[in-house]
Design a protein that fits this description.
single chain, 182 residues, mainly alpha, 9 helices, globular
């Protein structure tokens, strides 16, 4: 079976005008593509990161709470929103970390507002917090920006079951230790 050529191979032979046409068509396919291209091509001074992060947070919150007074808790789509926006914001590690921590904060808030959920719910929050911690360990310069929010999260999860509080505290402790050694 013959392998199809890679995208890199295919675009290598394109003329500049053809390549521009492909990029424009990609930007028309989805709003995420358009956002990514704008972020990638604009200077960092011209980028409105705050509006992109706020848009992402709104989507994440919507997947947890929905439009009613009761939680929706659509973890799959909330994680998907974090992952999609993380790709768009890949050149901005602080904003990616912010979205991951926000996911955990909203999930913790749901529990405190409506009571304990299932183990899978907490596993999802824990793994996202672990991803946040890895992000900050990779870019320790951002630790101070999130330190207060991490402490608030630890306080907020004190009475939550399923070992969730223990995991959050352990990860937060490891993160603080790593930040102090840098």
């Amino acid at each position: 079976m013959k392998r199809s050529p890679s995208i890199k191979t295919l675009i290598k032979d394109l003329e500049p005008d053809e390549l521009r046409e492909v990029i424009l068509e990609l930007s028309k396919l989805s709003p995420k593509n358009k956002q990514f291209l704008k972020l990638y091509l604009q200077s960092s001074d011209a980028v409105d990161l705050e509006s992109i992060v706020n848009e992402a947070k709104k989507k994440i919150h919507g997947h947890f709470y929905g439009r009613s007074m009761f939680p929706k808790v659509d973890l799959s789509n909330a994680r998907k929103a974090v992952n999609e926006y993380s790709k768009v914001l890949k050149e901005y590690p602080s904003q990616v970390a912010d979205l991951k921590l926000y996911y955990v904060e909203v999930g913790t808030e749901i529990t405190n507002d409506f009571g304990d959920l299932n183990e899978g719910f907490y596993s999802s929050l824990e793994s996202m917090f672990e991803g946040f911690c890895k992000q900050i360990k990779k870019y320790p310069v951002y630790f101070n920006q999130f330190e207060d929010r991490v402490h608030e999260l630890q306080f907020a999860c004190q009475n939550i079951g399923w070992g969730y509080c223990d995991v959050i505290n352990d990860l937060a402790f490891e993160l603080e230790e790593a930040a102090q050694t840098n």
